[in-house]
Every structure is written in C-alpha cells, then in structure tokens.
Amino acid sequence: MGRKNKNSKQSLSSKKNQRAKEIEYIKNLEAQINDFNPNDSLTISNISQFSQLPISKETLRGLTSAGFVSLTDIQKKSIPVSLKNLDILASARTGSGKTLAFLIPIIEKLYRNQWTEYDGLGALVLSPTRELAMQTYEVLTKIGKYNSFSAGLVMGGKDLKFEKDRIYKMNILIATPGRILQHLDQSAGLDVSNLQILVLDEADRILDMGFKLALDSILNHLPPTRQTLLFSATQTKSITDLARLSLINPQYVDTDNLSNQKPLNLTNENTTTTTNNNNQILSATPQSLEQSYIIAELQDKLNILWSFIKSHLKSKIIVFFSTSKQVHFVYESFRKLQPGISLLKLHGRQKQTSRTETTFKFSNAQYSCLFATDVIARGIDFPSVNWVIQLDCPEDVSTYIHRVGRSARFGKSGKSLLFLLPSESKFIDNLKAKSITTIKQLNIKPSKQKTVQKELQGLCFKNPELKYLAQKCFISYFKSIYTQKDKQVFQFDQLPSQEFAKSLGLSGTPKIKFKNMNENDISKSKQLKNASRNLLKLSKANDDGEILEDKNKKTRTKYDKMFERQNQNVLSEHYLGITSELKDINYEYQDNKDNNENDGNNDSDDDEDDGNLLKIKRIDHKLDDDDNDDLTSFNEINTSKRASKKALSRKASSKNRGNPTKLVFDDDGNSHAIYELEEEEDFHKKGDAMEQKKEFVSKETVHMQRADEEDKIVAKDKRDAKKRRRKELERQALLNENDSKLGAGVQFVLGENSEDENGDEYQDDYEENGSESEEPLSKKPKWFQNNKIGGEINDSENDDGIVEFERPETLEDLEALTAKLM
To answer: May I have one GO cellular component term (predicted)?
Structure first.
C-alpha cells in the first residue's frame, strides 16, 4: 500500500509539473504574438515557413505531417493578425491557401485558452456549399490530429438526428448556413454562448446566395464578444454588408497591396463611397493561368464543346453551365455518344451521396471531364485541372474569377476558355475594367470542328426521356438569361430560339412561360430556395410554439400527390405528334401492302404504287363527328404513365366502375335485373298471396326434379366412361404381360447387315396388313437376321427351340420382331 501511494504521489506531481510547463509555454507564445508586428513589411518578408510563426508545437507537427511547410502570401499577412485576436477581412487569389489562413488561428486560439469539451463550442466556420465544407473539414483533420479538440461537420443531406446527438460535444464546427441555423433552433444541446471565433469562408458568396436572412439569424444567436474572420477570393467593401456581420475595427488583408491594411471605420454612417469602391474587385486571377475566349453562336456551342473534348482526351477538364438542367442533358447525351473520356456531373440538385462520390472520383482521376454548375466554383481544390471551360457567360466578373480559379492553383499552370455570344462581347470590357487584361481571343478552325446535331436528333427521336431533358435544358437556359441583372451583356431578345432548339436535337421550339419578375422577386426566390422548410414552419408559429395552419387550405395526402403528378412519361407535345405521324405512315403502308397483294397479277399497277408506298394520302385524320370529341381531347391531354396504364387496362378500369350488375334477358330480348321488385298493385292483381306461393313452389319443384334427373344422367355417363377406361387399361396391361412372357425365350445376337447387289442396304419391313416390302436405307439398320443365313431361321441348327435374332435398336425393329413372333 505504501508503494502505491508513493507512485500515485509521483504521478500527481509529474502531472502538476507538466501542467506548469504547458502554462509557461502558452505564456511564451502569447508574448511572442504580442511582440510580433504584422504591419512591419520587413518582418513579413523574412518569414517563409510555418516554423517561424509563433504557433504551438502540436500545430506545427500536424502541418509538417500534412506536407505544409512554406507560407503563402495570404498566410504571411493574415495569420499574425489573426493571432492578435483582431477581426480580419481577407482577400486573395484563388488557390492561395486561404483555408490554412483561418484554420491555424482557430486551433491556436483554442489551444491558448486551454479549451475542453466542457467549454462548449469555441469556433464556427460557415461555408456556402457542402463540397467546400467537406474540404475544409478534411484539412482540419489533417493539421489538427495532434491536438485534443473535437471537430464536427454539419451540412444538409446528412442525418439530422445523428448530428443532434453529438453536436453538443464539438469544440469546432464546420457547417453550411442552413443546417447550422436549424441546429441553433432545434438542438437543445448546442451552446454557442461561449463562442470565441467565427469564420466566414467565401463571405461574399454567402451573402449573394440568398443567405442574408439566415446569416442575420445566426449572428443573433452568437455572442458579440467574438473574433470574426472573413475570407474570399473576391471581396466587397460595402459598409452595409460589413456592418451586417458585426465586425469591430477589422483589418483588411490582401495580397495585391491594394490597401494599406488600415482599419475600416464602420461607425461613421455618413461616410460616402464612390461607385468604383462599391463592389470593387480587389484581386485578380492567378498569374500562371492562360485565359482565352471565343465568340460563337448559341447553336454552335455544343459542337465546339464536343470537338474540344475529342481533341483533349488526355486532360482534366471542368465545364461550367448556368443551370443544372443543362448539366443533366449534356452529360446524358455526351455519355451516349461516348467521346472517349470519363464524364462526370455535379450540380446542386443531386443527392449528397452522389455529390460526394463525384467529388472524390474527379479529385482522384487523371483524365476526366466534369460538367458542373457554380456549386463548385468557390474554394474547391481539385488537383491538376488543365482546362476550365465556361460554356455559358458568368453573371459577373466575380463569378468568372472563381470559376477560372479551379485551375492554376498553388502556382501550377492552367488554362481557361470562355464562350461568349456575339451579344455578350461587352463582358470582355467588364473584365478589362477590373484589371483582367491578359485574356485573349481565339478563333476556331472550321476544319477542326465536328457537329453532333444529327446524333442528338437521333438520340432524342429514339429516347423520349432524353428529349424531355433537352426541352428542360432549353427552357432553363432561356430563364437564366431572362433573370440576369446585367441587361447590356445578357440580351434576351437576340437569342436564336429555333436554331438553339435544333442544336439540342429538338424538332420544334418548346413553349416558355415567363412571369414579370423584378430584382426583388429574384432575391426572394433565392432566399426561399436556400431556406429550410422546418425553419419556414417555425416562422409561422405563435408565441406558444404552435404552428398556425391555414383553415381554408386542404390537406394533401400522398394519394393526392400521386394523382397530381404530371409528365411521368416525359412525352412532350412534339413527341406525341411524331408518334401519331408514324402511326399514320404505318397504316398507309399496310393499306398499300394489302392492295399490292390483291393486285399481284397486274404489273403496271405495281409499278405505279411503288413510288407512293409510304406516302400519306390524307394528312387531316380528325373526324368531324361529335362522338370523337372525347377521343381528341384525351389525346391532347399530357397524361401520366400510371393514368394511361389504368385507362388502357381492362382490369384496372373495372375497379372504379363500382359493383357490377348482372342482367338476364327474356324471350323478347329485353334485359332485366336478376332480382326485380314489382309494384304492390301488380302483385295483388295476380291473385291471393298464398295461391301465388303454392304455384311458385310447385313450378320450382318440377324444375328441380327435371334438373335432378339431368344431373343423374350426367353422373351415370361419367361413371360408365370411367369404367370403360379402367377396363381398357386392364386389357392393355394383360396384353403387355403376355408379350413379355412370349419374348422371354428370345435371345438377340448381333450380326452383320445384308446388302443388295447395288450395295444399298435393305430391311424386311412388316406392315400392319402383313405385307412384306424391301426398301433401301441410307443408314445401316441391324435387323433380326441369323448370323449364318441373313434373316432366315435355321431350324436344323436350332434344335433347342431357341430362335436367335439380331438386337433391335429402333421402334420399327420392335414392330417387325413382334410381327415375326406372331
């Protein structure tokens, strides 16, 4: 016992010594941070590695194991400022290492505060997209694996209950705005009252995606005494947007020396700003990026894209589109055409598992082509991307910078290509106005261009689902152009609708319905698109927490939703027209074929009808009778596959007819129900009720007796037939038994075949009438013939009564043997 107490005292004392050393080490770090001057350009220029920064050994060890040794420009300028607990508004080129610039200060601040799981949430990182949130979480797990902090990732598409059960244990959370707001309202275990640091990655994108209201709600839950870091490749200096985020004397950090890092005065509301400073782009594209653009017609875009992919099969390509419908159609159509390179798609309407799988595949692929929307335009690090193709013009210069930033990351080389319509050529002036002057124009050689319009038409004709996707692609593109803010670049009236529809493989132009939408309506639609349904329900709740329901609103069940479905068969109006024309051609072809068969002897008529074999003689097949109005209206209705099957199926349609009624017909041919109730007066006219009863009983008795006699006769006939069948089987069995006894003394001996003089084999065939015939065979049958005398019985040699025959092999042999024995 004494030894154990001695060991426990030694361990306790060693823990105290380690604790004291750790506290002393933290004090030294804080002293180094206080002595560090981030505004000294000479000091910043001398720093080149993470080991020169005042950070902990555990963090430095995690950075080294993850392969991060050298500092980038944004990391040199922002990390020392962040370590001093100052708010930061940072801007840098894409691919410059902004993720480490805010993850290292998060880990260091929690480490210096000796944060534990009992202290609650210490850091919150907001990302605009799920892919960016996952990438940030992966980097955090790599560099922070030697620290004792718990980190979590919460985003849409994951199990909400699973996150609720564990979110209260997290020290660092990386989340999307919608999901973290949902947890703040519903998860009781989430405590943010002690939050130390808030990071907004791609802050301007969060504000532009319709998350302004969600961000306001999140900030209302957070304590004001926190440190806030804003990072983005493009940044705005709008005072109202910065005041929304509750920044306190933030330091502006950029890598292009466009600012002197002076604190922005947010308290002076009367400060005036020029239009050039509002929404000004403070960063340019990577220097190692080769930028180019081409002027192409709308109907030629897919042909040029196909030609480009076919000529760059050994490359890693990202193709940006404006809408998810375009991504879906181009992916499905090009996948059927098989360009010779792996194709992938990624857009916001996919399930989270599919998005994660696609991101992983494209990151690890050597050569691949990814069709995507702007959901991956921000912050996603895909390694070794050779080309960034923008098939549709971006909505603004900021979107262009983020798109091309997927290539030429971390100093590597890359190329970008921008497709512009002739009416969108003014976008080049917008780029040059934002100091992007290195972009150059390219010309496409007509000899190198390949067309896929005919292939797309054939695919849409054979595949109605693909044609439906083409129509949705057409409509979504026109709607995206219609809702753009810059009307000088995006001119909706100059779009060639018919030519564009043909380039997609459509036989006609789909109908588009537009609502009169202004900028406020567009912003509201973005907010509703990114808002959570549960949060919208909670916003309608009263003070007691009860959700208010509209009394006039009818409750829609799953069956109502099922019968309200439309476009289940994805057949458009044009496809129905095509199928009706094919039916008419088929009918006309069959009529001409029947006429030709009937007039087969008339050669001149056949020659005249050959030219008109597939000609439609009557184009208007609609009948003038009023009885066919229902049929015409039925064909015009775009019914679902379920409704069509139900209408054409006799079994399915009979279920809705109610209880079927059976009718009986009298001698005059009039139909009557099986049980009819007659009037009381008619009943009394026939006489007394008892007499009618006796008469009915007597008639039914006679009827039953006749039916009984008929049943007895039928039963007797069945018994007789069964008896005859049994006797026939007994007789057949007796004959078989006699035949087996008779053949018991017959031995079969193999012998050689006999041939006639011409060499043809013959057999002795005994027919049923006993006549004998000889017939040459191509096959050598082995007939029952004596070995010494061909087919004849040698009585002199067989004295013991045993007859020797050759072994039979076919049914004819057995029949001949039976006849011989008889």
So the answer is: small-subunit processome
Task: Report pLDDT for 1.
Answer: 45
CB 784 within 8 A of CB 791: yes
d(CA 367, CA 148): 39
For residue 637, tell me if it sits in a domain.
no
760 with 795, same domain: the answer is yes
Quote the domain boundaries for residue 773. 746-821
The answer to whether the CB of 242 falls within 8 A of the CB of 200 is: no
- Mark whether 49 and 147 lie in a shared domain: yes
3-state DSSP assignment of residue 516: coil
pLDDT of 369 reads 96
Write the CATH number for 380: 3.40.50.300
Let me know: does 111 contact 58? Beta carbons within 8 Å: yes
712 and 760: one domain?
no
* Residue 554 belongs to some domain of the structure: no
CB 784 within 8 A of CB 804: no
Provide the number of structural domains found in the chain.
4
Whether the Cβ atoms of residue 396 and residue 374 lie closer than 8 Å to each other: no
3-state secondary structure of 292: strand
- pLDDT tens-digit profile of 381-417? 888 899 999 999 999 898 898 899 888 887 788 999 9
Residues 73 and 192 in one domain: yes
109 assigned to some structural domain:
yes
C-beta separation of 38 from 253 below 8 A: no
Alpha-carbon separation of residue 676 from 603, 683, 698 (angstroms)? 66, 12, 21
- 729 and 772 part of one domain: no
CA 115/CA 410 separation, integer angstroms:
33
Helix (H, G, I), strand (E, B) or coil at 153: strand
Assigned domain for 621 exists: no
Q: How far is residue 404's CA from residue 784's CA, in Å, rounded to a whole number?
A: 95
663-665 and 671-673: which strand pairing? antiparallel
Task: Let me know whether 43 and 20 are in one domain.
Answer: yes
**30-68 pLDDT, tens digit each:** 888 888 887 777 777 778 899 889 899 999 999 999 999
Query: Which tens digits make up the pLDDT trace of 712-762?
Result: 999 999 988 988 888 888 888 888 876 665 544 444 344 444 444 444 443
128 or 411: which leads in pLDDT:
128
Section 95-111 average pLDDT: 90
- Looking at the fold, whether 787 and 722 belong to one and the same domain comes out as no
Question: Average pLDDT over the chain, rounded to whole?
Answer: 76
pLDDT tier for residue 216 given thresholds of 50, 70 and 90: confident
Q: What is the CA radius of gyration of the chain?
A: 45
Question: Is the domain of 58 the same as that of 160?
Answer: yes
Cβ atoms of residues 512 and 473 within 8 Å: no
